[in-house]
Specification:
This protein is mainly alpha-helical and 237 residues long. It contains 14 helices and two strands. Helix content is 68%, strand content 2%. The longest helix is centred in the C-terminal third of the chain and has 23 residues.
Length: 237
Amino acid sequence: MDNVSPAYLMTLPLHAVTEVYGTEGLRRRFLLEAEVLDDQDRVVRALTLAERLHQDDKRVREPYVNHVLRVAIRILRHYGVRDADVVIAGLLHDTVEDHPAELAGGAPADPRQAAFGVLERDFGRRVAEIVGAVTNPVYDPERDSDEQYREHVAASLAAYPWARVVKASDFTDNGVGIIHTSGPKIRRAATKYQPLTPVLHELVQRDDTPLTDAAKRHIVDQLQLADERFSAILSGS
């Protein structure tokens, strides 16, 4: 990485950075993108926390932290967001869902509630609320989990416009990036995500979604691409 210029790294598509330079490249790209933000100390603390909590997590054939780095970079680069709270929420969007006890510390009676308390204490109430809005609840085991997932996303994002920004980037990484998945997981992911595409399409284009028209068009284009890939996978072609 030492011989890669920042200017060159900033021109690369995110999955190209991933494939060629891995986590180190994505981390460096994020820090370059994040230079436009205020409160650099808080941003770096959030990055360090995400790296610690996800350090042993895997995502098909890559470290899971690559996913959260791409989510945060996309919010900065492609959505033009300059709000540190939203970028930090992007970095931490899976922490409560995946590692509540580690985040909370100790052995609290309700690890999730305690974990949200830690996020609020260390990064502010707004970060905790955005992360809360994109965190999947504990599902009823008697009902279909995918159906409950879609119900939660639709209701939660309707209520929290800034959470739509984080979820759009997360969904893009999962949906458009489905081509980097293999094996039985690919059909499972397409089945889970495709019904949510029109829901996100409508939510993103609402007047209260805090993005520019150009950013909204970019997201819609990405949602359409994801939907095409889902359809192709599920049709067996």
